[in-house]
């Protein structure tokens, strides 16, 4: 076996080690990724000091930008949660679209609410609303619930500032504004097909048996909810700033004197910082909260980010050690002999990792390390498209090794077989539809 073959064997063993440690031994993903880093370093003969330096630089390089972004994004999501913003969005959308289209309204609500909050948080936040909507509209809980779940999951995987999506954008050195814009464009038809359309087809064939306390949830009085316009503006504000930066750069050119200010305001850190300040007013002080309550909500939001940051930092170390050990060059050498669309390849890598390791976050950030060596082979390829390809690949194939799968099962109260036929199948439809949409979309912008 040649050098390339040996290095690829080491890579396969390292990925298998991650899967074994996280799935079989239930070891935390942070420890599993660091173990894989050390395994690669020792088996490829890296000098000890270089091995440690790669881990250190890899973690620091990823977290340097991501840490403040993720913390600020979590605060915006928390402010939306405690203010009743999600309930306001759902009520307004259902009123605008009509009760007959409640399944479409819940998909849009999930799509919008999924921008600032995590997938699991979005489920907790929106599930009580789901029952109110389904009863009022006279629809099956599955018909309304699947669109909501898919809306949350799609945005979670492909649109920054979600942790994995942002880590992918940073790892590929992609324009974050483009990733957001492309992700929203590609994700919407995928979520529509796998959500309202699929949910309508299967809605009456399955039943939910949710926890009893959720079924008894009472709607919040109208006067206690924030206005629709200001809620929507607050959620979309950081995305608008980041997308505007990309659009103005295209319209004015990078050398324009105004671009220094545009780049500053449209930077993800600045955009999310301004969004936090805005949310403190629109969803906090303006709703009768004092700064002490807002401070406590901010602390609650930031706390759970520690585990996410550690996993992302370890994935940065994994990606760095792949490159420094020579495995990155081996991947590049091997793939030069293949003739496959790079977006399809990126999607396949993410989908395989998603199926193997379970969680979308670890699948995406592990996939980056395998895809980065490809980029020099396609100098004209926009990294933002690759980022979206990885995101769409990570949406589907959720099954028993995915924590999100069990989270959905707990809240939906479905038998395992029915969950495979609804949630797993719908997420996979969204993943495949996202890839097809991305391939079509890439033809128009290339």
UniProtKB/TrEMBL annotation:
The chain crosses the membrane at residues 6-23, 30-48, 60-83, 104-131, 137-159, 179-198, 228-248, 260-281, 301-322, 343-372, 384-401, 422-445. InterPro entries: Glcn_transporter (IPR003474). Keywords: Membrane, Transmembrane, Transmembrane helix. It comes from the Bacteria. Pfam families: GntP_permease. This is D-serine transporter DsdX. It comes from Sporomusa acidovorans (strain ATCC 49682 / DSM 3132 / Mol).
